[in-house]
Amino acid sequence: xYVVSLTYKVxxxxxxxxLDAHVDWLKDAFDEGVFIAAGRKVPxxxxxxxxxxxxxxxxxSLAKDPFNVHGVADFxxxxxxxxxxxxxxxxxxx
Length: 94
Hints:
The protein has a single domain, classed as Dimeric alpha+beta barrel (Alpha-Beta Plaits, 2-Layer Sandwich), CATH 3.30.70.1060. It is of the alpha+beta class. It is about 35% helix and about 30% strand. A 4-stranded antiparallel beta sheet has the order 2-3-1-4, covered by helices on one side. The longest helix has 20 residues, at about 10-30. The model has no long low-confidence stretch (mean pLDDT about 95). InterPro entries: Dimeric_a/b-barrel, YCII. It holds the Pfam family YCII. It comes from Arthrobacter globiformis (strain ATCC 8010 / DSM 20124 / JCM 1332 / NBRC 12137 / NCIMB 8907 / NRRL B-2979 / 168). Belongs to the YciI family. This is YCII-related domain-containing protein.
């Protein structure tokens, strides 16, 4: 499993210019099964994505994100092996 941390590197106005395209890309990526969770960081300095895709599929998808294409955010991909979960989250176990 992968945790992807996006950190904005441009002004919020520029982020907002690309937000609709990013949301469209994200919808497609969810439809393709690339991600299982996504959300904004609080405060709004970027976002976090959770993926069970293999690394080549994840990298291919991230390369298409308008935030990546237009240099809006830095992407930090962390591989994570879940070996314990709270009840109801067993599907996250490796």
